[in-house]
Amino acid sequence: MQTERTFTNAARRAQIVAAAIETIAELGYAKASFARITERAGLSSPRMISYHFADKDDLMHQIVREVFTAGAEFIGARMAAEETMAGRLRAYVAANLQFLREHPQEMAALTEIGPHVRDTGGQPYTSQSTQEPSVRGLEELLSAGQRSGEFRDFDVRSMAVMIRGAVDAAAQRLRGEPGLDFDAYAREVATAFTLATRSSG
Asked: What is the pTM of this model?
């Protein structure tokens, strides 16, 4: 009985999170009230959301956690399939851009949520400090590629910031430029950083 109740609660939370993402992506953060999310989820009362989430901020944090976790798992699996640092860098760029393209509602919701939700350090999720773990991960990858001789000598911090910036810019382009040839964008970004990092030896 306890297992069944736990499964039901998890399913309800997932239903609420999905409805919240759709509501925020369509209406924006400010208009995404519990009443709107309740209607979208097909629930009988906003109290059903309050049972699972303390307040709107709690729900927003859950959305951020779930999308970030899904993205990290998607990207990590594709990087792990590569044996070389160059292959992992290309996989990192390609997988990031693929995840953005395949999850437009989630990306739109994160863009709306970011300025309003704070991390444990009190910083909005759109701030540089929140992006720092991604940049540091790239620095480690680039440094490993330099040690293996696959990458040329360059400032890894600067390169990591540029790579992350190109990925983040894609999310804005997807929303603001519907006619963008995203396949071409992804291909050119991956090629640009492959050439920019490649050793001449």
From this structure: 0.86
